[in-house]
Design a protein that fits this description.
The protein is mainly α and 371 residues long. The protein is 70% helix and 2% strand.
Length: 371
């Protein structure tokens, strides 16, 4: 196990960078006075926490796209379901926990004249149940969808279109007020988590650190998967699925397992994201968000794990700058970035960085040759 982890230096370096960076930001926020030039504001802590959640989502996509050859354009559905599961728990923590033996209704249900709590909301007042649903709901959906799709041998662009249709259909369903998830406004006005106020700086720092730990654990899990025998078969399925089938393996089972693990990671990322931003609404299911997440992976380096994390952080940092300085040009910049990476950096930023030492060594050898 340790050999498999150390074998990928990029994963080790990125994991160490994520942990060190998160701890450094936490120290700068909690220990340095606000007047200090290195003090990290609450806004910066929340922004970095969001980036780390996006990094975990990108890691989940890279597992299925980079190593199983499944280009999912609908991973936002797993992200959103995990986020809604956490949001439902946070909503149940608002106000007194029961009046005359009946569960308290969320504010939007009272506004819509609902008289009782829907059955699928029951249990979310318990933290353990909510955390279970964060992983279970996206995983079950991924299992059902993957079993139907892979059993029918749907691959390539057709599978990508179906995943996009899945997240779009989910978005339309959650926009409906009668679904019981807040409709267009979604779930918001969260106040506490595990007994800690979400308005406290310490809680925000804790959530940022939890996101960093989740990214590191996700990197370790994915690295162990791809370095195992299962991962070798998964890569073979990506490169030559028909040959793998002729050898007696069942590619459907391997792709299905990878998709379920990926969906669970995406659900965890969404659950960590919600308390840090304070809202979850159907826009998280938008197909454009899932497509943007794929671009993060492409920019960082598909099939590298570490590159997916770097790509998510770099692209979102660039987005934060662009939407502040030139908000109207961000979508054009994002499209241009994707074209640039596709044409000039097919292995992404991480592939480019890895190739630099080789390029410099070759240049040195050529320069030393006599004329």
């Amino acid at each position: 196990m340790l050999r498999a982890l150390i074998g990928d230096r990029a994963v080790v370096m990125v994991a160490a960078l994520v942990l060190a960076g998160a701890i450094g930001v936490a120290f700068a926020n909690q220990s340095l006075p606000p007047t200090h030039e290195l003090h990290a504001s609450v806004f910066a802590v929340g922004l970095i926490g969001k980036y780390l959640c996006f990094a975990l989502l990108a890691l989940a996509i890279d597992l299925v796209w980079g190593y199983a050859g499944i280009l999912s354009l609908g991973h936002g559905v797993f992200w959103g379901l995990g986020g809604y599961a956490m949001g439902m728990h946070l909503m149940r923590l608002i106000g007194p926990r029961g009046v005359y033996g009946h569960p308290v209704l969320p504010d939007f249900m009272v506004f819509l004249n609902w008289t009782e709590l829907p059955w699928y909301w029951r249990g979310f007042d318990q933290a353990w149940f909510a955390l279970l649903m964060v992983v279970l709901v996206p995983s079950v959906l991924a299992f059902v969808f993957g079993w139907l799709a892979f059993r029918s041998r749907v691959t390539g662009v057709y599978l990508s279109i179906i995943t996009q249709a899945l997240t779009y259909a989910t978005m339309l369903a959650f926009f409906r007020n009668d679904m019981g998830f807040g409709g267009n406004n979604g779930l918001t006005d969260f106040r506490e988590l595990f007994g800690f106020s979400l308005r406290d700086d310490g809680t925000r720092v804790g959530l940022m650190l939890a996101s960093a730990v989740a990214v590191v654990l996700g990197l370790i899990l994915c690295r162990l998967i791809v370095a195992s025998r299962f991962g070798k078969v998964l890569i073979a399925v990506r490169d030559a699925e028909s040959r793998v089938r002729f050898l007696g393996y069942r590619p459907e089972a391997y792709k299905l397992a990878a998709l379920v693990v990926s969906a669970a990671l995406a659900g965890i990322a969404g659950a960590l994201y919600v308390p840090q931003v304070g809202i979850i609404n159907p826009s998280e299911f938008a197909p454009t968000f899932s497509i943007e997440a794929v671009i993060w992976v492409a920019v960082g380096g598909r099939g590298t794990l570490a590159g997916a994390v770097l790509g998510a952080v770099l692209v979102n940092a660039l987005k934060s700058w662009f939407t502040t300085a030139m908000p109207d040009l961000w979508l054009f910049a994002l499209g241009g970035l994707f074209i640039l990476v596709t044409l000039l950096m097919p292995k992404g930023v991480l592939g480019l960085v890895s190739a630099l030492p080789t390029a410099f060594s070759r240049r040195g050898v050529i320069a030393e040759r006599p004329a």
